[in-house]
């Protein structure tokens, strides 16, 4: 083959990729090179589906007549306006709790109580996870059934004072050798859950006021940041029986799409060795060396074993705590993202090989555990068009001059262009003809069970990063409230249309069935998967009427303990390494 025909690690030649990039302009309908991976093809490249891909993607214009004005929609939106302080208060309480994944005791309780006060019935322990719940409101015939998603976990090290555009952690842990910051909502899940709960309650209020048939199911989801909650619940059947699912996530713009994201495996590696002293390190099995070696080895995968769609990253979670104390246990945690479950597994298998090599080189013992596994996202074109029509109908969030000054100050501290918060609704555009990889979410597993609509609002200014203290600063600010309440209105308005426009809901379902007809979803979690749980406090179990441990969970879990002995260095050498005297 000539140089331009060389294959990258995705299996596509450069000529193939150039052809794909030109598909939109050329109006091509089918990309045969993608048919080898049905999940990647169905989710990422809609050119494979001429019924879904616009005939002229470059000049595509989103339909404007899908969002219908109705008394029910007016009721839902006005309810959010009247209850804005309560919804913002829920957001701020969860922001202040800033609880880690799988331990959101106060946050999940606050969200469930908000919904219970608005007529929802609460069931705790969804999928065997104590802080996961399902809140249900039903009226009339109970059909159709629409799902909402609430998340409430924070991220480590992202504590920050609200409304402060300069880095100033709210929680600072003093340690002269290794200071750390507390947890913070640097992904905006306080707003995600509050807006979704507000939208669900507003929709329920409109259903009562306007006598609409249907059921609203709100899924309080734990540990999205660890890609655990929804994938476990989907495997357990918690999301069965839905007709559609509406979701949102804080973002830097106001937009929706029917694009995809990466599938992902999450695996924790533990290396076990022996004790040692820095002054006499001989005959030590160094686990810190093992995690260091593994981190180095996996870097060599990037050049020739990772496609343009792949992402790989790690965090050393446990290693030496003092220079002269060799730890008997060290741990490193990896994410492997790729465009489909099959590709993600291949990448993670290579990472496992690197772990095995690191253990071999350092004379340590290695064991690993799958912590999570999620599919690539399956969008829904008709659903995105409906959401976009409602976003356009309601208009973009209206930020004050003070909000914009705050946003520009955040951008300045980040070194990005000082444009402030986005105050426009982005055009709805078809997904790019070539998937280039990206983030992952456990919402993806839901999207293969039921037509799913996703949306984002400008919850942080453009140019700032998600998973950053900048986002924590906005999440409980006035600007964050404006964006969060706009999201609640978009979600509620779209759901009202789903309840009152059966034709659009049928079109969404027909598209979903067409695109999944040749794909059998199977959880990426193994059958012997162990939930990574923490024991809840007594008060939480009592309030939620749960027992411990959940069914099928062994507690306490198996301990990871080193039983290694010092390595054999061979027979003793005589003095000065000389032959013995005759």
UniProtKB/TrEMBL annotation:
Keywords: Hydrolase. It holds the Pfam family Peptidase_M20. It comes from the Bacteria. The keyword Hydrolase applies. GO terms for biological process: folic acid catabolic process. Residues 572-582 have a biased composition (Pro residues). Residues 549-582 are annotated as: Disordered. One of its GO terms (molecular function) is para-aminobenzoyl-glutamate hydrolase activity. InterPro entries: Amidohydrolase (IPR017439), Bact_exopeptidase_dim_dom (IPR036264), Peptidase_M20 (IPR002933), Peptidase_M20/M20A_hydrolases (IPR052030), TAT_signal (IPR006311). GO terms for cellular component: cytoplasm. PANTHER family: PEPTIDASE M20, XAA-ARG DIPEPTIDASE. NCBIfam families: amidohydrolases. This is Amidohydrolase. It comes from Micromonospora costi. The lineage of its organism: Bacteria, Bacillati, Actinomycetota, Actinomycetes, Micromonosporales.
